[in-house]
Amino acid sequence: xxxxxxxxxxxxxxxxxxxxxxxxxxxxxxxxxxxxxxxxxxxxxxxxxxxxxxxxxxxxxxxxxxxxxxxxxxxxxxxxxxxxxxxxxxxxxxxxxxxxxxxxxxxxxxxxxxxxxxxxxxxxxxxxxxxxxxxxxxxxxxxxxxxxxxxxxxxxxxxxxxxxxxxxxxxxxxxxxxxxxxxxxxxxxxxxxxxxxxxxxxxxxxxxxxxxxxxxxxxxxxxxxxxxxxxxxxxxxxxxxxxxxxxxxxxxxxxxxxxxxxxxxxxxxxxxxxxxxxxxxxxxxxxxxxxxxxxxxxxxxxxxx
Amino acid sequence: xxxxxxxxxxxxxxxxxxxxxxxxxxxxxxxxxxxxxxxxxxxxxxxxxxxxxxxxxxxxxxxxxxxxxxxxxxxxxxxxxxxxxxxxxxxxxxxxxxxxxxxxxxxxxxxxxxxxxxxxxxxxxxxxxxxxxxxxxxxxxxxxxxxxxxxxxxxxxxxxxxxxxxxxxxxxxxxxxxxxxxxxxxxxxxxxxxxxxxxxxxxxxxxxxxxxxxxxxxxxxxxxxxxxxxxxxxxxxxxxxxxxxxxxxxxxxxxxxxxxxxxxxxxxxxxxxxxxxxxxxxxxxxxxxxxxxxxxxxxxxxxxxxxxxxxxxxxxxxxxxxxxxxxxxxxxxxxxxxxxxxxxxxxxxxxxxxxxxxxxx
Lengths: 305, 361
Prior knowledge:
Chain A contains 11 helices and 13 strands. By secondary structure, chain A is an alpha/beta fold. Chain B is an alpha/beta fold.
């Protein structure tokens, strides 16, 4: 599937990209990451030449919570459990990453330090993997208990979404709250009906990846640890999209960024800044010239893959 | 001289040097303050042949100092706010002048922001058998409050003072709007006999835990479990928060303690706090002798210029030894509401982090 990743759209490039790549036909849009503002998409509609059809996934989710109270109650319990799981993961992650940084700062024998650092990063990777597996298992249990395809309200919405996607020349996924976006994409089974090319940015790009990595080094209480949120749609493979990288990451802190890049390797950490436009080819390969975090923590220009 | 004064903000801040001035007839003028480590009264000097009095103090960058002037004349003294300085800080005890040293700025998130949608305040009365009185509570509900959502609960001691003197509602509106702090329901509670109820009172702890929290859980969409509950307080209010969590371990996941009156003795009984502190000292001594994990996370802040700084610093390793995650913050400030206001962003965003990490627009 062809995917085009864009930088943040404060200064929009969507209009030229969409017009040049997909000049004909309706374009399905997903703005669920905007939550209550999902329908405030007049500006996007203009950029797409009024060819847009908003899938309304957030509105559909609200409808499900209202018309299917059993499912809504289950979702609330799921959210509380996942919150607790995330808290314990972050607790362990804090210690594991502190260990990585402490080893990284040590003097002494370079080779020994490099070996131990690799082990420490490996421990963080194991922790990330275990967390993802746990989250997937919990979600799996939830969906086994309340199979969405057996819930009439959800099934009805899924059918409508599939029909809209089936007739679309392209799909546009905007940013916003990546957790909300990823959840509704899963709930309405968007991946199964996604046959058209996709244009995405910010949270939209993150939700297309295999793993959703949250990051924010400039939070009110100091740099936070990059953390695994869960699984994305896996439309993009081998990549961790980093929208707003310069605004959100301490890119000048090369040791910290080196840990970031090595932790998520072999996936490539791709910067999505203003003006970025990256088109993956039909077999999912990456073009040369994309900006990525290198294993030394510096931003570098990636080669084709 | 008048032209000079009209051209300058007083105190005059030039680098680290802060020049305090008083213009008027007097036999002596003193700067009166509560900076721990400096003499409580510092004399101003008269500029020869004039009625202008001056004092130059070196204040470290980022300092914020509340003060008054003590004017002596005709054998009498009176303390007044600095007539040349329009900046005032307010508290339940009245107002005082305030000096902003180089590098201090009132955080912009403490000021009303037209972009921030305001939450609402709802007054409740909760009858308490534990305290044998009807307890007033002001409940903050965030903007976009929805019954189907689930919110964490923050209980704030001296709630009226936090609202009035620490701009708590504005701060919450702004920090929630900016995604720094999670949408939360905040219960601002009011003390009756403060020095009794907040000094390790079993009745107060029972009121909070067995009466107030269940009442709020029954009437409002609160997330369940201790991780979604935090007790907060300043000064004696911090003692009350720690004490309630100590008496009900497992009930509260977090504590936000500002300039806690954690007075203790290492030996003997001379704590210097007066009779009101007796139950506090007994409680803190007992806690320090056998630290207990009473919450998962504790945010502690204190002003470097308040006498309680040493007590608060001493509590940090005690809390850590009990197995709690501790975030400790100091500021070049005193035992004041504006100090507590200025630390709210760090504290609240750590206790109940907002969803900013999820937003990529």
